[in-house]
Amino acid sequence: MHVAIKEAPKSLIQNKHELFRSTDLDETRSLVGDVYCDHKLQISSGALDAFHYHIPFDGISFNYMGYGAECIIEPGCLGDFYLLQLPLKGTATIFADGREFQSHPGKASILNPNSYTKMRWSGGCEQLLVQIEKRKVNSSLAGYVGRKFCEEVSFNPNISENDEKQSAWWRHVVSFIREYNQANSFYQTQCVLNNELDTIVKNLLFTLDHNHSETLVTTDRAVLPKHVHQATEHIREHFSENLSIHDLVKLTGVSERCLFEGFKQNLTVTPMQFLMQTRLKNVRGELLKNSFDDFGNITQVALDNGFTQLGRFSSYYKDMFGELPSQTVKGRKNCPDA
Questions:
Q1: CA dihedral 245, 250, 254, 255 (to 10 degrees)
Q2: DSSP letters for 117-138
Q3: Whole-number Å distance between alpha carbons of 267 and 277
Q4: Which H helix or E strand runs over 103?
Q5: Distance between CA atoms of residues 50 and 21, nearest Å
Q6: Residue 99: how many CB atoms within 10 A of its CB?
Q7: 315: number of Cβ within 10 Å
Q8: Alpha carbon 9 to chain centroid distance?
Q9: The pTM is what?
Q10: Do 76 and 102 touch, CB atoms closer than 8 A?
Q11: What would the pLDDT profile of 156-202 be if each residue is shown by its tens digit?
């Protein structure tokens, strides 16, 4: 499936996040280089009209930028960071790891730190970019597997276009950017923010193909801690009921903090997030059944699966699957074999 993002998050393209706007080639190259790395920049055709929005954190930043003109960008080796790029307008032709491939709306790419890279952005190309420092990726991998690796993570730069996990990862990123910029966002709490940024990096390791993917899969198959296993099985069997964190604490016999940390360390989500995902997946499964043929039944399906706040249900569903419940039903009707 295509990455279901068609425009830049409005909470990113705000004046407070605008790094620069420029029609000067040297100024643009210098300011972009301050965020990423020194590079060559050449205009192929059209007039330069560059802009860059930037939200930085420790070891990771979220960006939206464009050059206006068709241009050639040659950073060589990035050195100490990975760069994920998702065009929302135009296309980018990328030369990396001895290969040439194209990125366009719905098809992202990732640049590795030690791979010589050269790109051609089409006129009017605008991209959403996530920059992640190498140390953060290496730390996340070592923390999950339990040991360090001599060989750093090397992603396949030519990301598959028909990848639902990749689409979900980008939607997660956009959702974070949107929520972070809310006036009373819980991400203003530093520990919550750090957990979320760590989750974004860890989820990336499970989303994209890289040289340590098989190690992660093998580790992920390991037996969960007893209390986490008990809680997940109980959620899967009783997700439609009115479950609370106190019910899970009573069931497992561990403290709320221990349960929370067990879920975050092993599943990268909280117990209540796991419950929400389980409910949403079951709703989607029901909506995709051929026997479901009445738009009015969507509300009943939501209620049957434990959703009592129907005003938020559609929003949660769209965040996870990139479409509204009614669009899922409509798509199945238009494609009965889905």
A1: 50
A2: EEEEEPTT-EEEEEEEEHHHHH
A3: 12
A4: strand 99-103
A5: 6
A6: 11
A7: 12
A8: 13
A9: 0.66
A10: no
A11: 888 877 678 888 899 999 999 999 988 888 888 888 899 899 999 99
